[in-house]
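Late entry, written up from scratch paper. The run itself happened at the end of the previous shift, but nothing got recorded in the book at the time, so transcribing now.
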Amino acid sequence: MMIRDLEWLVALAEYGHVTDTAAILGTNQPTLSRALARMEAELGTRVFERAADGIHVTPVGEIVVAAARDLTDRYEQLLRDLETILDPETGVVRLAFLDSIATSVIPAVLRSVRAEAPRVRVELRQEPGHHIIRDLDSGAVDLAILSGKPPGEFGWHPLQEDRLVLIVPPGHPFATRKSIRLDELTGEQFVMTPVGFGFRRLVDGLLREAGVVPDVSFESQDLATIEGLVAVGLGVAVVPEPSAGSSGSVSVPIAAEGARRTIGLTWRSDRKISSPAARFREIVGNSWT
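Output as recorded:
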């Protein structure tokens, strides 16, 4: 069994559909199905059960997939280590970041790194905060830029502080206000990020302190989608000021000292990061002091 086979097993477990996985891997469904049959024959057990809604990992398959993921991670780490040893200035940095900062903080950070270390390659992963923490814990990414220092063994370098604002549709009674107290939002319908997202916890905490239990009309992982839903009158939302008003909503400053979020660079502090990642961290640390 080759490394590619193990990577395909992991991808199948992650996506749960042979056709979708084949498209993502850049192959076709018959080729992937034949490869899966060959791997299961070689292992002497079924890794997946076929069902109408896709494929599901069997109990034995859970062990196989976990081992495959571990082996592919080790192989990728081996390649990175070799590249770093052979030429520390040409390694790869795997950087995860929040969707909401894709057009603001990330371009500035990458410009700084490219200017100082042009041969360091940066692999980008745009994902929700709870996925970022998972990937940092597993070693799937080296560094991350997200909102708020994670609890536990994480290093942290703040980059930017964003004020939070309320966005409302045009014509809303609050649209002409110079500022708004959070306790005035009782009875409003909210458009929010899903439960479990770091930004959702931040907003829920602010509303809780103000004695407001939000009536959630819609949830979306994407702040641009939240903006659009608010703009057409489907609720109000608390968003970072840099994201406000892009779809025609009206932003109102929030009169609360804690209505801010801090964006920063983070990494696992209980393990050594690669030389390129350390160089990335150094450049960012010197550029944002």
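The first strand starts at residue 48 and ends at 51.
(Scratch paper discarded after transcription.)
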